[in-house]
């Protein structure tokens, strides 16, 4: 079981284990907003509902710009595992401007690519090949990207994740 943790201002912070969420609730650091319809947990002094979404009782300051690190997995996720050139299923990533020509490992320069297109393109740019990008690569935005662990979201979390988008 996993639990969505909200800041005191209803901003999604993270997804934690059920046990960690219960400890926060037992220590009065959080309150249960949504719970799972299951057997309650018995504590020494009282019973607790099984939390699906909790909110912290005190506001936690989050560093300003949460930049999302560039990863192969992230690029494939952003592009829905579809090739940016032909639209088929993608298993690799490609530098739009090749690294040998100064292309960086940035969200704007990386695109999901199928193995065939990646091998054919090689060390050239899409313009040199006469190809057009099917999407415009950019850094991802939205609540599910900034909240670690929200990829496999519980349906009860969606209203809270939409607030962060």
From TrEMBL:
Q: Does the keyword Nuclease apply?
A: yes
Does this UniProt record's set of keywords contain Hydrolase?
yes
Q: Which GO terms describe its molecular function?
A: endonuclease activity
Family annotation (InterPro entries): HNH_5, HNH_nuc, NA-targeting_endonuclease
Keywords (alphabetical) are:
Endonuclease, Hydrolase, Nuclease
Record domain HNH nuclease: where: 70-119
Which Pfam families does the entry mention? HNH_5
Q: What is this protein called?
A: CRISPR-associated endonuclease Cas9
The source organism is Microbacterium terrae
Its organism's taxonomic lineage begins at: Bacteria, Bacillati, Actinomycetota, Actinomycetes, Micrococcales
